[in-house]
Design brief:
This protein has 289 residues and is α+β, with helices and mostly antiparallel strands. Among the domains are: 50 residues, no CATH class; 115 residues, Alpha-Beta Plaits (2-Layer Sandwich), CATH 3.30.70. It has ten helices and eleven strands. The protein starts with a helix and ends in a 9-residue tail after the last helix. It holds the Pfam family POP1_N. This is POP1 protein.
Length: 289
């Protein structure tokens, strides 16, 4: 009787995995990808989530205000050392085509009365980044779209050039619509639709090993079947990941590509910013063929 009583009193095995199992790399990747279904995370999301109050804006999950009293530390870094900001949520549009055709059409959405334009010599060479205000085509000084920054890729000897235009995510759709209109770009006939990226083969094998060890409970969906691991979403909060992100003009050959979240962007503030860059980035040796 005592033995039977002890069997009934034995606690059932916990259905939730232990913290060590939950913190395994494979499990973290699957969980993080699942939680990015609606709001995209930046590369530095985990670091910010532990130290900032997070807000959901423009399709992203961004750090708004710090949870600790670090205002003095940030101010001290800006004035005496170096402070880094993650601006990867800014949207980037890439224009590729003949330089003359690009400058001809871009002149319609900006004006020399406001300052620099895309034709500025120092910016056209690719050495400096420029900033200006964009307007709807031939509508200056009315119908302002918003401020943007741009940088040209240095010349490589060919007549084709590449231009990157950076803008706030709230302005992206209006500016993209205007660029497609002035360059007469439409979606290519065979639109490339990226497939969601899953975990690598090695990670999948590790996941099978983790599930097979012990009596681990397998996640089940609403139908009771084994749940499919969450897939990493390609894209950003301002576009559908399963829609085309490149448009081409059949008349001029200009190509507009959406490079948002494919090119990371950071801002360094402070007197030691240049020293940080020189210590972090090592110049490659120039080899001539």
């Amino acid at each position: 009787k005592q033995a039977e009583k002890a069997v009934h009193q034995k606690k059932e095995q916990s259905k939730t995995k232990c913290r060590k199992a939950r913190r395994r790399h494979v499990n973290l990747v699957v969980e993080f990808n699942r939680r990015q279904g609606k709001n995209i995370w930046l590369e530095t999301h985990i670091w910010h989530a532990k130290r900032f109050h997070m807000v959901k804006k423009w399709g992203y999950c961004l750090g708004d205000s710090p949870t600790q009293k670090c205002y003095r530390a940030c101010y001290r870094a800006m004035t005496n050392h170096c402070l880094l900001q993650d601006l990867s949520y800014y949207c980037c549009l890439e224009l590729t085509g003949k330089e003359n055709e690009l400058l001809k059409q871009l002149a319609r959405i900006c004006s020399t009365d406001t300052g620099l334009t895309f034709e500025e010599v120092c910016c056209l060479s690719g050495r400096f980044e420029g900033s200006l205000n964009l307007y709807r085509a031939d509508r200056y000084p009315e119908d302002m779209l918003g401020p943007v920054t741009f940088i040209w890729k240095p010349r490589d000897g060919s007549e084709n050039r590449q231009l990157w235009i950076w803008m706030h995510p709230a302005l992206k759709q209006d500016i993209l619509r205007e660029l497609k209109a002035i360059f007469q770009c439409s979606e290519p006939e065979e639109a490339y639709i990226p497939e969601p990226v899953t975990t690598s083969v090695q990670e999948e094998k590790q996941m099978d090993v983790v599930l097979s060890l012990g009596k681990k409970r397998k996640k089940e969906d609403k139908e009771g079947e084994r749940a499919v691991p969450a897939k990493k979403i390609i894209g950003d909060g301002t576009r559908d990941p399963f829609q085309s992100y490149a448009w081409i003009s059949q008349t001029t050959g200009i190509v507009i590509s959406d490079k948002t979240m494919e090119i990371l962007r950071y801002r360094l503030i402070g007197p030691l910013s240049h020293s940080v860059l020189t210590e972090t980035l090592k110049a490659a040796s120039l080899q001539t063929v």
